[in-house]
Automatic annotation (TrEMBL):
It comes from Lapidilactobacillus concavus DSM 17758. InterPro entries: PsdUridine_s_RsuA/RluB/E/F_cat, PsdUridine_synth_cat_dom_sf, PsdUridine_synth_RsuA/RluA, PsdUridine_synth_RsuA/RluB/E/F, PsdUridine_synth_RsuA/RluB_CS, RsuA_PseudoU_synthase, S4_RNA-bd, S4_RNA-bd_sf. It comes from the Bacteria. It is an enzyme of class 5 (isomerase). GO terms for biological process: enzyme-directed rRNA pseudouridine synthesis. One of its GO terms (molecular function) is RNA binding. This is Pseudouridine synthase. The keyword RNA-binding applies. SMART domains: S4. Keywords: Isomerase, RNA-binding. Residues 2-59 form the RNA-binding S4 domain. Belongs to the pseudouridine synthase RsuA family.
């Protein structure tokens, strides 16, 4: 017997947290009966439906590395009818969704999956993995600013963890710089807020790397499916079994 939300997530329908929302709002039935109680346990023989559609408990999981362009929402739908990440995966039968998010005006690496267990592990607060960003900023940061970024700055009365910070390149004529920043936290708008705190507002932002994964060979709007070995390695990282 397993909890209903876990079975739904493991089937690749959505993340466990979203599965809980589906249950609470009466969109899930078990053996023909609507179930709203979180924590309900079901066995492998149970017929589970989401919005009247039976889930495939043996659905094959898949995870993609996607190069999100700017101007795309990190979601499966948008009430303002803006372009969303899953628009790029319309040829896939699986119900895919992004793991985490990137701001609308931020480009770069994001994972898209139907593996609810992996998504749940990677979005858990305990999951701390290096994420590298490249930020085009106004001005050229001095050594004091870089040192402050490395030691941590205060955001919403909370000090960020130590980070790696460096200048990738600079344009003296335009008074701009490309700053590299590696962090392992996931606060909303963290890089933008960190750069603003040290006096160098972000003009453009890209997430260039997550853990051992990067954007090599991809253009904005392109994706590649992760290999089994890469997915296994993400599981080990998420479970704290690999540095």
């Amino acid at each position: 017997m397993e909890r209903l939300q876990k079975v739904i997530a493991n089937a690749g329908v959505t993340s466990r947290r979203k599965a809980e929302e589906l249950i609470a709002t009466g969109r899930v039935s078990v053996n023909g009966q609507i179930v709203r109680e979180l924590g309900t346990k079901v066995d492998q023989r149970a017929k589970i439906e989401v919005d009247g559609v039976p889930i495939d408990k043996k659905q094959k999981t898949m995870t993609f590395l996607f190069y999100k362009p700017r101007g795309v929402i990190s979601a499966v739908s948008d009430d303002k009818h803006r372009k969303v990440i899953t628009d790029y995966f319309a040829d896939q039968d699986a119900r895919l969704y992004p793991i985490g998010r990137l701001d609308y005006d931020t480009s770069g690496l994001i994972l898209v999956t139907n593996d609810g267990q992996l998504a749940n592990l990677m979005m858990h607060p305990k999951f701390k993995v290096d994420k590298t960003y490249l930020a085009k900023v106004e001005g050229i940061p001095n050594q004091a600013a870089l040192t402050k970024l490395r030691q941590g700055v205060s955001i919403h009365s909370r000090k960020t963890a130590s980070a790696k910070a460096w200048i990738e390149n600079k344009n003296q004529a335009k008074n701009t710089a490309l700053v590299g920043l590696t962090i392992h936290e996931g606060m909303n708008h963290q890089v933008k807020l960190m750069m603003r705190d040290v006096g160098y507002p972000v003009m453009k932002l890209k997430r260039d790397r997550v853990a051992f994964l990067d954007l090599t060979g991809l253009q904005p709007g392109e994706a590649r499916r992760l290999s089994g070995e890469e997915v296994d390695r993400l599981y080990r990282l998420a479970q704290g079994k690999e540095d």
